[in-house]
Design goal:
The chain is an alpha+beta fold. Helices cover 26% and strands 22% of the residues. The protein has a single domain (15-149), classed as 3-Layer(aba) Sandwich (Cytidine Deaminase, domain 2). Strands 1-6-5-4-2-3 form a 6-stranded mixed sheet. The two termini are 27 Å apart. It holds the Pfam family dCMP_cyt_deam_1. InterPro entries: CMP_dCMP_dom (IPR002125), Cyt/Deoxycyt_deaminase (IPR050202), Cytidine_deaminase-like (IPR016193). This is Cytidine deaminase.
């Protein structure tokens, strides 16, 4: 039996089409991206997170000469947020990434597979979808309404 998976998403041609809170998240992720430590890949990623209390926190990727000891921006940010605010739900995550040298043709940069799985853990834990946005410096934005939309066959604690 063959089955199909469909993913709904929103596309924004640039950040001016975003709501005020989405624009704030975009700007915070862009700012965090500038402080990324990526001397090896030269691929800078920033992430911002909106918590249910309205607070916004951000982080970025941190590389290490001993690959793969570094950590992506999404996991750096979400792990810090979860460690410091374990009882607060994450409402939105915004990721902005791309090569250090800006290229206008860079498409929106989605989270890698490891980040998708890690983000899924928190969506499952809070039993509530997390809006996930991803972009590059050209300001095109893709929004999915749940992490599971990017990881439909996710692994969670129900398999253990």
């Amino acid at each position: 039996m063959k089955k199909d998976i469909q993913i709904s998403y929103e596309y924004f041609k640039n950040s001016s089409e975003l709501s005020d809170i989405e624009k704030q998240l975009f700007e915070r992720a862009k700012e965090a991206r500038e402080n990324a430590y990526a001397p090896y890949s030269q691929f800078l990623v920033g992430c911002s997170v909106l918590l249910e209390n309205g607070e916004i926190y951000s982080g970025n990727n941190q590389e290490n000469a001993a690959y793969p000891s570094g950590l992506c921006a999404e996991r750096t940010t979400v792990f810090w947020v979860a460690a410091n605010f374990p009882d607060l739900k994450i409402e939105k995550i915004f990721v902005v990434g791309g090569p250090k040298e800006f290229h206008e043709k860079n498409p929106p940069i989605p989270p890698c597979g490891a980040c998708r799985q890690s983000l899924m853990e928190y969506e499952t834990k809070q039993n509530e979808n997390i809006d996930l946005y991803f972009s590059s410096m050209n300001e095109e934005v893709v929004k999915v309404h749940a992490v599971k939309d990017l990881l439909p066959f996710y692994f969670d604690s129900t398999f253990l």
